Amino acid sequence: MGKFLADFKEFALKGNVIDMAVGVIVGGAFGKIVSSLVNDILMPVISLVTGGDGYKNLKYVIQPGSPATADGVAAVEEVAVNYGLFIQNIVDFFIIAFSIFVALRFAMKLKKKEAEPEPAPAPEPPSKEEVLLTEIRDLLKERK
Question: In which domain, by residue range, is 136 found?
Answer without folding.
Answer: 2-143
